[in-house]
Amino acid sequence: MADDPRVKIWEDRIIRSKKIRKAALKEAKQYIDFYEGNQWGSKKTTLSEKPVINLLYAHVKLQVPILYFQNPRWYCRPSGPMAGIEQVVQNAQLAEYLLNYYTKENMGITLKRQIRLAILDAFFSFGTIKVGYVADFEANPNFGKNNVLGEDEQGNPIFEVDTETGNIITDTVEDIVVNEQFYARRISPTVMLFDTEAENYFEDGRYVIQEIVKPTEDIKSSPLYENTEDLEPSYSIKPGIDEVSSKPDDYSELIDDLKRNTIYEIYDLEHDKLLVTADGHTKFLRDEPMPDGIDRLPFEFLRFNEVPDRIYPMSDFKPGKSLQEEINMGRGMIMTHAKRYGRKYGYDDSTFGGNAEEEMEKFKDPEDGGMFKLIDAGRPPTVIQDATLDPAVYANFSQSLVDFREVMGSTENDRGVVERRKTATEAGFLARASGVRKEDRKTLVEDFAGGVGNKLLQSMQANLTAEHAVEILGPAGKVWQGISKEQIAGQFTTGVEVGSSTQHLPEHERAELVQALQMIAQFPPELVMTKFNFDGLLEKLHMYFPLLEKADLINSPEQQQKMQQWLTQMKQQQGQGQRQGQK
């Protein structure tokens, strides 16, 4: 196959995108160094002490749990044109059940780790989650055979027949799915490339590219890629063993295992296509329409600090970096001054006479009750006072701490400390001002998580092959229901229930539960009995009051069943007694 001239166009775009990325990553690397505590670097200073009070690290560790403490609960709502609204609403409900159950049971802690890591990336630059689908296949044993629907009463096979032609339908599927998995994985900002002509948002550009390194043999053996016959490796990684210590045959296989290729997964948003190129290769390894289940991009991006007309966002650390350096410098000056040799003495020839050097050695590190020979007791060594450290250093150090917390948005409540007493009005103003800033950032994370859920659902709608069993809480309690691809079809809007990803403190939840029960008690009894699930409340009551479970104050299911039977018998006996009394 001849060389594809379009490859050159994409090579040029990749080179230009890499130049912009290089500058952005260089800046982000400074902030990563600060986060790790490497904050002095090559800074020239006369200070002997170089302490690090890593407030940037503390800032991140404080913010991440506030923003994302647990996997959220997603909701699905019908959107777009609807034909058969009842069916669409039912499909949306089943899609919501499947999405929440799958992310909880099949992804669980893995999803939480990936999203939290993407949030951490956003503090330095931007965060990225890639949503996708992988499956294991095996050969279909019924390929080419007639499709059998079942057997008749005599045990003869019933074949599937084409209603138009009357011909028996044969199985045309060569491979069948034996295991499938949907994933949401954090992608490093260091491997993402974007349109150099985009203004602010990656998704608004003409393309988004992911740079991937793969073993050459994996690329050549994968059915996903074509035009791999003349693919040469981009480089080889360094082996862990010496060539001398291995046999020639073994070493040749090792050499093949060390070969790597850098490929570029191009999501061409202009033409809605997926392209793959490789360094130094003149043909596309993939050139196909965008796969099913991908709405424009498989990526969801998180940015905290956009800058007008700049595609890369500003790091959260940038406003606090200079203040962090001031704080380190101030503490360094204080420590250096404190550790200097505190007491200095002056003497002249008449103090010790000819034995000055010998007597001064005793004087440098004297023991209790030490004796020194003086020529003139009236002229002992004179104490020379050190210059005191300028009070402005202490004042500037304290002010830098205040400035840092104001710029970074860290309040006393967030840090769990009280620096000074405040009036109720003042405390309320501070809490509201801080809350607006935190809530704004929470909404960014919730929108980000909502986008991840939306892409997961789209992938499920396109790729789900077998029914998935999902536990659903219905009117009769918990039931298991199988959900298939057809049952989640439709156009839906997916979002995150507000506050479902943030931390929940037991004491706060306990107080909220008590307040809710007090409010419910004022409702009409009919409304309470029809709208509220008290069985579910009692099942979860031990979560709010752990003592109930520890002290065995809650009956087991068997005990509850016996008590229910006993109460039923008591009611029956009371009813019989009342009827006999009426007679």
UniProtKB/TrEMBL annotation:
It comes from viral metagenome. InterPro entries: P22_portal (IPR032427). Residues 563-583 are annotated as: Disordered. This is Putative head tail connector protein.
